[in-house]
Design a protein that fits this description.
Oligomer: single chain
Shape: globular
Number of domains: 2
CATH class of the largest domain: Mainly Beta
Structural class: alpha+beta
Distance between the termini: 7 Å
Number of helices: 5
Helix content: 25-40%
Radius of gyration: 25 Å
Strand content: 15-25%
Number of strands: 11
Largest sheet: 9 strands, antiparallel
Length: about 270
């Protein structure tokens, strides 16, 4: 009988402990990533966007992302797709002139005059967040040109964008890159095929609409550097409450686990 009681007690003890360990294991990643980053956006070398620039500001709370994007000096009256890029095998930087080295694409002439998104890929990686003004923010919306900023003076913010733990950590560790697209190579005031041809990402769009224009690596920033009403928009005073919820859930699990352990011990003692 004594052996049976010890065995039952160990089982009762293991159950809430394992349950609590599982809870903390699932909660830990969300608590691991917190901070703010800023990217100073500058012209991609070789692209005819002299004088263009901007800033991308990103705040991470667990796996929730908020951002503000500002860009000036790009093609007026045209949409500018914008993304956060990351790739584990990428260089985690903006393209250089040396990246303009691929063979001509279909319909592209004078290929040395165009640094395409594909050519920039080894530097900044794939799209991980689409910085849209509304709706979906996944890579699927990478070319949703109707939901990005328009014109030569863009500024907008969004909050509550959900990302993976890998993406959150990449952003906070300086491995993610903000890229704003759209280059008027021929200077005709609109996105047209010209000598660039159609996009290598979507043959229904001119390549001018999808090639990278300005770019910057997201680097750690102090919260004091973030503009009021900027990145915090969408998070605001609720930032951190998701952590409070997890802490409360953890406390509840501890209390529940303790009660379960107490009842199990009491029951086995009575049975002995």
């Amino acid at each position: 009988m004594g052996t049976s009681v010890k065995r039952t007690t160990r089982t009762a003890l293991a159950a809430p402990v394992l349950g609590l360990a599982a809870l903390f294991a699932s909660a830990a990643p969300a608590l691991a990533a917190d901070g703010a980053t800023v990217a100073d956006l500058k012209p991609v070398p070789g692209q005819p966007v002299d004088g263009a620039g901007g800033q991308g500001m990103v705040e991470i709370s667990g796996t929730t992302l908020s951002f503000t994007l500002a860009a000036q000096g790009l093609l007026a009256d045209a949409p500018h797709a914008a993304h956060i890029h990351f790739g584990a095998d990428a260089r985690h930087e903006c393209p250089t002139a040396a990246d303009n080295n691929a063979a001509a694409l279909a319909g592209e002439t004078n290929e040395g005059d165009h640094l395409t998104t594909t050519e920039g890929g080894p530097a900044y990686g794939e799209i991980v967040v689409s910085l849209t003004k509304s709706g979906d923010t996944s890579p699927k919306s990478g070319l949703a040109v109707d939901r990005f900023g328009v014109g030569d003076d863009i500024k907008y913010s969004r909050g509550d964008v959900q990302v993976s733990e890998e993406v959150a950590q990449a952003i906070l560790s300086g491995q993610a890159v903000v890229v704003v697209h759209g280059v008027d190579y021929d200077g005709d005031g609109a996105y047209s095929a010209g000598d660039r041809g159609m996009s290598d990402l979507d043959p229904s769009l001119p390549g001018e609409a999808t090639d990278p224009a300005i770019c910057g690596v997201l680097n750690a920033s102090q919260m004091g550097d973030m503009p009021s009403g900027g990145v915090s928009t969408g998070g605001g005073s609720t930032t951190g409450t998701e952590h409070a919820g997890l802490i409360g859930l953890g406390a509840l699990a501890v209390a529940g686990g303790g009660a379960g352990l107490f009842l199990a011990r009491r029951r086995t003692s009575t049975e002995s």
